[in-house]
Amino acid sequence: MKGLERKISIIIPACNEEKRIERCLVSYLNYFTGNCEILVVLNGCHDNTLEIVKTVSARYPSLKYRNIAESIGKGGALIVGFRLVKGDIIAYVDADGATSPEELARLIDNVGEYDGILGSRWLRDSVIPKKQSLSRKVASRGFNILVRGLFLFPYKDTQCGAKVFKKGVIKSVVNELGITNFAFDIDLLYQIHKKGYKIKEFPTIWADQDTSTLDLKRVAPIMLASVVRLRLKHSLFKNLIG
Q1: Domain carrying residue 129
Q2: What CATH number is associated with residue 173?
Q3: Residue 143 to residue 147: CA distance in whole angstroms
Q4: How many domains does the chain have?
Q5: What Å distances lie between residue 69 and 45, 80, 219, CA to CA?
Q6: Can you state the percent helix, strand and coil of the chain, rounding each to 5?
Q7: The pTM is what?
Q8: Distance between CA atoms of 54 and 49, rounded to whole angstroms?
Q9: Per residue in 176-223, pLDDT tens?
Q10: Which helix (H) or strand (E) holds 178?
């Protein structure tokens, strides 16, 4: 693939992913070879995820991992990963395998002159092979409308797990990131957006996984509160310096 002309770093955050982490890692390790590093950042795992990652790393020396015993959230794991990786291109994907390595490679190949590229499930040419439930679809679209209204983002999908950025972008914002929960992606995009970086949204093939542990009824109010707090935080900061 064209992207391997540059060093690529792929970060995979993982928390209690024993049922699907091996399949995901093996597919990525078999596809991305050569000038590429894959880093798994585990946080707060109390199942067999760490042992599985260790076993896979014994078979694939190019796989690196960092285990954080306490629960620091997906965002916290990604911040740790951002500080550790060395690639010219820094990407991250979820551990559930919803984004195939081929799809991530397609995103990387289309970065071009942009500073980053976001996989999107809600563009005209996006493909979701397995139909989502109506409640999940409504929640996802509603959440995105809220985010676009609060932050004036042009992006149709801030929450898709596949994102790719050039190293300079990540290094310029990593020390400003402080949100580690469901609002992490929004905080990251906000920090990038306000610095004027050019970010492209790109249609992707996204395969929802049967093994998802997301409890929508429990998580939806938490996501809503997280986004509102983030908006208030940035509004307060602007007032203090304005």
Answers
A1: 2-241
A2: 3.90.550.10
A3: 6
A4: 1
A5: 7, 13, 23
A6: 45, 15, 35
A7: 0.90
A8: 9
A9: 998 778 889 999 999 999 999 999 999 999 887 654 555 667 777 888
A10: none
